[in-house]
Amino acid sequence: MTISVVIPVFREEALINDAIGRLRGMAFDKALEIIVVDGSEEGGTLRAVADSSAKSILSPRGRAIQMNAGAKAAGGDVLLFLHVDTELPADGLERISSAMELGHFVGGAFDLGIADRGLAYRIIERAASLRSRLTRIPYGDQAIFFKRDYFLRIGGYRPLPVMEDVDLMRRVKKRGDRIHLIDEKVKTSSRRWRKEGIARCTLRNWTIMALYLLGVPPGRLAKHYP
């Protein structure tokens, strides 16, 4: 299974080359395509990319819109949607390929890990893992992946300002299709929790999710999600 990694960015010049370098340094003996999709009009992150083999796309801003643009340009068997500040485990690409080759699953994700010390982060990680397994709805910072043909067939991400990952996974679940949750952790940056405060950020995320599940439109929820 060849993999196309889609990285949606917005003014991430400081992080993009480290993210690409980590991917290039991973053990993987199949074709790996890296696609950077920039949502800023000036395209600053694209100009900062040092890897000439990475594919660069300028897109209207919006994570869902950017990820769909990357998916349409991808040539791999599997699409991996990776946040620029999220790091895969050392064998992450191999684990994805192996899971998809089984033929039982349409996609999947990893457990959540947060690249910071502290009991509060461990609690958040544990809660995220339990939630994902109970609901079968992982979030975008867990490195979601799909078979490309399947992703395009179900219409990809809807152009929502927030909750695009939850919306997609709910559609997959409604269809009765199976995803595979890999029991290894990605490491995502704690910068949002550190900037906003752990309690405030977590409470806000839970509140937005609850309101979304109660039917509040994503457009209204986006006003409360920086």
The CATH class name reads: Alpha Beta
Q: Report strand order across the widest sheet.
A: 3-2-1-4-7-6-8
Given as residue ranges, the uncertain stretches (5+ residues, pLDDT < 50) are none
Q: How many beta-strand runs?
A: 9
Number of domains: 1
Shape: globular
Identify the CATH homologous superfamily: Spore Coat Polysaccharide Biosynthesis Protein SpsA, Chain A
The amount of beta strand, in percent, is 15-25%
Radius of gyration: 17 Å
Q: In angstroms, what separates the terminal alpha carbons?
A: 36 Å
Give the integer mean of the pLDDT values: 95
CATH fold-level name: Spore Coat Polysaccharide Biosynthesis Protein SpsA, Chain A
Characteristic key phrases:
226 residues, 10 helices, Spore Coat Polysaccharide Biosynthesis Protein SpsA, Chain A, globular, seven-stranded mixed beta sheet, 9 strands, alpha/beta, 42% helix, 19% strand
